Amino acid sequence: MEKLFKLKQYGTNVRTEVLAGITTFFTMAYIIFVNPSILQNAGTQDNPFNPQGIFVATIIASVVGTLVMAFFANVPYALAPGMGLNAFFTYTVCGVMGFTWQEGLAMVLICGIVNIIITVTGLRKLIIRAMPPILQSAVGGGIGLFVAYIGIKDAGLLKFTSDPGKYALLPSKTVIADASAVPALVNFSNPSVQLALIGVAIILILMALKVKGSILIGIISTTILCMIEIACGVDPHIFFPSLGENIKTASDFFGTISISPAAIGKSIASVQDTAFKMDFVGLFENHNKVLLALTAIIGFVLTDIFDALGTFIGTGRRTGIFDAEDEKLLMTSKGVKSRLDRALFADLSATITGAFVGTSNTTTFVESSAGIAEGGRTGLTSVVTAILFAICLVFSPVISIVPSAATAPALIVVGILMISAISDIDWNNFEDAAVAFITVAFMPFAYSITTGISLGFITYILIKIVKGKAKEVHPIMYGAGVLFIINFISLAINKL
User: Fold this and answer.
1) What is the pLDDT of residues 269-282, one digit of tens each?
2) Residue 495 scores a pLDDT above 70
3) What is the spatial distance between Cα 273 and Cα 58, in angstroms, rounded to a whole number?
4) Total domain count for the chain?
């Protein structure tokens, strides 16, 4: 153990590392429930994205990615499909842009390959230098607000009204409304909405009390309350609208739940519904959508890079996991020589694993900081976390009984945690404030992470030009800005 992880060198021991690994697991285990609840929305009735398969894929990607981090980089970080990136995949790439989830997985794989190439060639350093800190902070905060909005919507807390004649009903029963549509709170009479509010309260109270695993405890507690309500006679369809008509009673519902060896085996085997489903032909066969696909891939790449880098520097600098020499080597050396370089490489390679098994970008979780706070300093912490994730495969059949009323509160709280990135923004500086506001606001308002990033880039470039600071903008930023503008023009032309 000592030879493998160098425990003494990093001032730790086996007991500390094990406790740290357990802590990290409980702070991020919510992802195994939340990720399927988000990604399944990337599917359609004719092309479903199996949540059971996503659950298994989430665990496999987390285990593999975390073990690579442990043995290749020897740092105490755990990986899983990233929050924000899964929302980008579902609601922007597959929702707004109209790609299938198979085409989305192809983008994720391309993103992973591109990121590895730019890492080993040194292009990553240029991208890091090119994107100003203001945009990095704004993108992180904007994704947080977007995730929170999804949670509020999935909890059923909002209703929308529109003036007569200001909306259209499509054959698919989708309602298209213009700017007259106004959101408002529901009246809270729905048991599912009431349950979601209880879930939010549970998680917020536990977080305020600094209870480890607050989000996971909240999800499990709310799910148990849901089961109690169903047992007491509440119609299961209220919590699970997609249930078949043959499920009419509580006994019918509970009869569908099984954790027998056969059920576990069948559940684990469901990963074949998501694994190796990347559709590269479909992604690029429509020439009108090639530029759109490239824009989405750029969004994946940029978010992936800065999400991981921010986590590493933000948590590793204070604890000594990464020192000043690591950061210097990151920017000056070639290849993967420093501990930070190896950690970034492990993070990026995990994205490829996720694409193969059927989930969105796998990335380093900031919740790893909980384990680090407990003293975790080496890859042994990550090994423990990976083992606990693997054990969760046994419980894969129960994913179907976790209602959106239980996962939606988790999204709201995760959004609160993510939006803290905007605290690094100087809101008294109008230039920074304008760029940040445009980036953050348009992600939830336009229901598109890419739109927020695109408009943020364009706003930043425009302000710098009119202020006579055009030389401060890196050429890579200009190139990205041109691509984003072309994309907006193409969208306008296609809708004429």
Assistant:
1) 999 999 999 999 99
2) no
3) 13
4) 1
CB 325 within 8 A of CB 341: no
pLDDT, averaged across the chain: 85
Q: Residue 81 gets which letter from DSSP?
A: E
Alpha-carbon distance 72 to 134, whole Å?
32
What pLDDT, in 10s, does the model give residues 261-310? 877 888 889 999 999 999 999 998 877 788 888 888 887 887 787 777 76
Alpha carbon of 329 to those of 184, 200, 321, 336, 352: distances in Å?
52, 43, 14, 9, 25
Residue type, 270: S
**Exposed/middle/buried for residue 187 (C-beta within 10 Å: 0-12, 13-18, 19+):** exposed
Is pTM beyond 0.90? Reply is: no
Whether residue 385 contacts residue 376, with contact meaning beta carbons closer than 8 Å, is answered with no
Number of separate helices (H) and strands (E) present in the chain: 23, 6
Helix (H) or strand (E) holding 204: helix 191-208
Question: Is residue 104's pLDDT more than 90?
Answer: yes
Whole domain around residue 16: which residue ranges? Answer: 2-494
- The two three-digit tokens of residue 489, written as one number: 């023009």
Residue-level length of the chain: 496
Token pair 């907006």 is at which residue?
A: 488
Asked whether the beta carbons of 480 and 299 are under 8 A apart, the reply is no
